[in-house]
Design goal:
GO cellular component, one term: cytoplasm
GO molecular function: metal ion binding; taurine dioxygenase activity
Distance between the termini: 34 Å
CATH topology: Double-stranded beta-helix
Shape: globular
Number of helices: 6
Radius of gyration: 19 Å
Organism: Caballeronia arvi
Family: Belongs to the TfdA dioxygenase family.
Bound molecules: succinic acid
Order of helices and strands: EEHEHEEEHHEHEEEEHEEEE
GO biological process, one term: sulfur compound metabolic process
Length: 282
Amino acid sequence: MRIEQLTYALGAELTGVNLADAVHDEGLFAEIRAALLKHRVLFVRDQEISRTEHVAFARRFGDLEDHPVAGSDPEHPGLVRIYRTPEQPNDRYENAWHSDATWRVAPQFGAVLRCIECPPVGGDTMWANMVLAYEKLPPRVKDEIAGLLARHSIEATFGSVMPIERRHALREQYPDAEHPVVRTHPETGEKILYVNVFTTHFTNYHTPERVRYGQDANPGASELLRYLISQAYIPEYQVRWRWKPNSVAIWDNSATQHYAVMDYPPCLRKMERAGIVGSKPF
Ligand code: SIN
């Protein structure tokens, strides 16, 4: 297997490897896992693997989970279908920088996404390195956000297009999660800037050190949150991947955010994502 780094920020392309072989080959899997922790997102082309092999490979990293709104392949639980077809047209949730499922108490460790069909041009996906985004923050901002906590909500995102009763039922099932604004990577110990489109507000901002008058609270908190969320938009932290059928991306969901670019005319783009269960951020 060869590993070619794609940008200074993150991302590497693997060649000379079949992911299905890593299901049973301990050494190969260990090499891929180490490369993932180093490069944060890995790309592999020409993976003519079956859905069973896709799921089996992703399961090497941990258990898989379905998504409460996006449906999964009925024969392969844990394999979420991200299909844009004339029957299932545009979905606005794609155009936002995010880490998957941070509205969960224990958001995903990572994911393995395979392209089934894509437009000849367009429909790329971008990733941003949120370890680098934290590292590059000005020291005064690092001081300001140390110890801050924030809420992440499925209700305010996926739920917002639902009728009110369904939205409330979704919130009952998945109450907002609270996570540190700066989390620690569970394996590498690196610090990560951990706010994204699912983040609604800080929960412990309103203290005398930050808020002189009540009037300070809202502009202060929301401007800071907006600034932090916007760090993922910085090109120097990013990599962009052009899909072809049978291309695969494997990413570390703690350390990165991603953005599926919806620049293609309606509608054919079919992706399948195996999401790997993660742990509670600290
Ligand atoms: C995702 O947001 O997990 C899917 C990304 C993509 O469809 O490119």
